[in-house]
């Protein structure tokens, strides 16, 4: 009859006693409990969860996620955030799953996915099927954001406040802001849409980091990254943004709809923390001379004046201010109750750090102000005052710069890494320190997201002084970007990203970090991992379990180092599992 049929309930026989029936029922229960235990055991073994060391038996391949998870955002998941408070947009900030909560699976590409259009052609068009979402084209097409044409989405370069194109808008701003002089290099574009403003600034040698939250448009940051424009998934809500103080040469908002003076001015205070002395604040759209927002416009002007910002111009619905070069003019008499923070405040601390309702005291203001810091590209190779302020900072800076020139040359010459070709545009350095790798590839047609681990020394300010961009992040959590958004991911000392800096114990698993790298990496993209031979051996095992092809190399001959370098390629597979 078989095992399942033997577990069917037994009927009372006409001659059977009560004791015999009770015995058979008891055996049935024992069998049932045993089978349930076996099923649970097999599920635990063969359905991996994040947090398992290898998450699958040796030689096994991690399974694909469901087709519905093609755009998986672990820390911006509306299924979780919809249950959270709406106050100050808390629900739209990062909220990551607890360790072990998320299934360990490989995020599949959408049907019809192709290797992305190469840069610079991608600035103007991308494959429709790589992100088959037409909502923005339908709602914003008349404003020049984007439109569908055949197999492509096209980007005319428009925006809500510049429907005639970003280039014309940039020309207008240049009358008041020195966008073409080399004085300005790094910008923050808040609520950026599909990032055409940042995209067209690139030809002026300006790198604007564009950000927006996951919202009703769903994929605006994904479109920006597919175009090869620096962008990041982010919400200005209850926390400081993950950037150092005095980092951006200008901050731009084009109809970003951020209520700058609400919550006791918390959002304008945060902009002030991020803006470099002598930098420019550009706001186009509400509330600037906007109908029915006269009160908000008046408050914005008054608060900027309390911070001693100089109003450069009000041109239609665009207002531009210049931040003073010197340290804050506070304390002063102002209607907003603005005052300086206590001496215990570290303005560079910005990883899960609550917004403050006070103005941060910042040292070295005049030394790193716009106009004092070197113009681009000289600032790239010269240690700034911030570097000089660190213990042995200048020597460390120069040694790091020279080291990465040699390493990048070795990557290109001997390891076959396609830096400098059309195959690589979006690059991430997971452990950036002073941004040496990004500096070494500055002449290549790439941009680099420099990530400074939040548990390590906060060197990100030096990176911004060089004219480069980046964020703070803890690699025991998923990164705030969409799947398939980077062509090359570099991890120098990957084990240090998961180790406690004091105890040396692991805070999370190598598997978790590499699975996240796989989510971020584009099909046929490259991962370069450097570490000790033992760590690289473990990395190879994980790489094979997530379907990467691998090559292990010795480090640069002149370095005299015993560390190994893993160069891996993410394979192009589709659902059902086939090679692309």
Automatic annotation (TrEMBL):
Its main location: membrane. InterPro entries: Put_SAM_MeTrfase (IPR004159), SAM-dependent_MTases_sf (IPR029063). The chain crosses the membrane at residues 29-47. GO terms for molecular function: S-adenosylmethionine-dependent methyltransferase activity. Gene3D superfamilies: Vaccinia Virus protein VP39 (3.40.50.150). GO terms for biological process: cell wall biogenesis; cell wall pectin metabolic process; methylation. It is found in: Endomembrane system; Membrane. Keywords: Glycoprotein, Membrane, Methyltransferase, Signal-anchor, Transferase, Transmembrane, Transmembrane helix. Its EC number is 2.1.1.-. CDD domains: AdoMet_MTases (cd02440). GO terms for cellular component: cytoplasm; Golgi membrane. It is a single-pass membrane protein; Single-pass type II membrane protein. Belongs to the methyltransferase superfamily. PANTHER family: PECTIN METHYLTRANSFERASE QUA3-RELATED (PTHR10108:SF763), SAM-DEPENDENT METHYLTRANSFERASE (PTHR10108). This is Methyltransferase. It comes from Hordeum vulgare subsp. vulgare (Domesticated barley). The gene is LOC123427472.
